[in-house]
Amino acid sequence: MNKQEAADFLGVSVRALERYVQQGRISVKYEKGKTRPTAHFEQTELEAFKEELNQPTVKPAFESRQIATEPQLETAKLVKTSGEMTEFGEIGVIDKLSSIIEGLLSTNDNQPKVPVADKLLLSMAEAQALTGLSREFLKDAIASSQLKAKVIGKGWRIKRSDLDEYINQLF
């Protein structure tokens, strides 16, 4: 039987059938055709392979993490297989990794936190939060020189005393 017939018989695609041949699970014989060699499969072999495909396979949901140790012949010491951790050292590694992660995550926390009300220089967002005025209103005040501000880095910085004076002028 040819490739298409064999694939239909097994209930798989032609490509899957070709993969089975590459893996050596099915044998194929090529015979001379008019233009190119054609594949021919044995009926009995396909029937046996179909039964194998229809067998239910149960794979474990997870692999067990048993630690394999083998005694060395010369010293009679236990040697762990490469890539595995010892049971005793595993907890230490996890603790070290968690402390490194905590250190990396808390690098921003090393600077002291100062409340917005106590800062001398305010960012635009802090000035907004403190005054309740919109960003556009504050930008218009800066553009019209009613509020003194300066660009430091990528953002505007406003002196707390200048902001207080501006608010007093408004009311």
Word description of this protein:
The protein is built from 7 helices and 7 strands. It is of the alpha+beta class. The chain is elongated and about 100 Å long. The N and C termini lie far apart (95 Å).
Give me a quick take on this structure.
This protein has 171 residues and is of the alpha+beta class. It has helices at residues 3-10, 14-23, 43-54, 87-105, 124-131, 135-143, 160-170, and strands at 29-31, 38-40, 69-71, 78-80, 121-123, 150-152, 155-159. The strands form three sheets. A three-stranded antiparallel β-sheet has the order 5-7-6. It has a two-stranded antiparallel ribbon with strand order 1-2.
Beta content comes to 5-15%
Strand order of the largest sheet: 5-7-6
Low-confidence stretches: none
* Main sheet: strands, sense, barrel: 3 strands, antiparallel
Radius of gyration: 38 Å
The computed structural class is alpha+beta
Q: Give the fraction of residues assigned to helices.
A: 40-55%
Order of helices and strands: HHEEHEEHEHHEEH
Tally the beta strands.
7
| Shape descriptor | elongated
Average predicted confidence as pLDDT: 80
Number of distinct helices: 7
Tell me the span between the first and last alpha carbons. Answer: 95 Å
